[in-house]
């Protein structure tokens, strides 16, 4: 079974940066799964933020975060990180890491203050 542990959320002022990390564990081949981050803001549906497909090393981004967020993975350590720069209040949400949109981490809160 795949287990995901997310960390790195917090409170930051607009224009600041945060780095989210997600560590995967369990008896599975990390690169056989797509991995990425979703987020859910209050009153809104969960939306995809960034992902790397199974067997890929290229990240794909939701339009609003392109140029600000950078997703990277370390297959040897079974970790994926999301570097978030130039954060805006609209980025405030609970962020979830996921593999294949099937297994989910517990969520980590990101709050951006104006």
Helix and strand arrangement:
Layout: E1 3-7, E2 10-13, E3 18-25, E4 35-40, E5 47-52, E6 59-61, E7 69-74, E8 79-84, E9 93-99, E10 103-104, E11 108-113
Parallel strand pairs: 2-11
Antiparallel strand pairs: 1-3, 3-8, 4-5, 4-9, 5-6, 7-8, 9-10, 9-11
Helix fraction, binned, reads under 10%
* Arithmetic mean of pLDDT: 95
User: What's the order of the H and E elements?
Assistant: EEEEEEEEEEE
Largest sheet composition: 7 strands, mixed
Structural class: mainly beta
Shape: globular
Overview of the molecule:
The protein has strands at 3-7, 10-13, 18-25, 35-40, 47-52, 59-61, 69-74, 79-84, 93-99, 103-104, 108-113. With 114 residues, it is mostly beta strands. Strands 2, 4, 5, 6, 9, 10 and 11 form a 7-stranded mixed β-sheet that branches. The protein has a 4-stranded antiparallel β-sheet with strand order 1-3-8-7, with no helix packed on it. A hairpin with a 3-residue loop joins strand 9 and strand 10 (103-104).
In brief, what are we looking at here?
This protein is mainly β and about 110 residues long.
Could you list some keywords that capture this structure?
single chain, 11 strands, seven-stranded mixed sheet, globular, mainly beta, 0% helix, four-stranded antiparallel sheet, 114 residues
């Amino acid at each position: 079974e795949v287990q995901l542990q997310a960390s790195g959320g917090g409170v930051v002022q607009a224009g600041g940066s945060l780095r989210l990390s997600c560590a995967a564990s369990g008896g599975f081949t990390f690169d056989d799964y797509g991995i990425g981050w979703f987020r859910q803001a209050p009153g809104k549906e969960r939306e995809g933020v960034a992902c790397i497909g199974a067997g890929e090393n290229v990240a794909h981004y939701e339009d609003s975060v392109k140029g600000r967020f950078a997703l990277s993975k370390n297959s040897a350590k079974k970790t994926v990180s999301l570097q978030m720069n130039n954060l805006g209040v609209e980025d405030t949400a609970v962020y979830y890491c996921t593999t294949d949109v099937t297994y989910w981490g517990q969520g980590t809160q990101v709050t951006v203050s104006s």
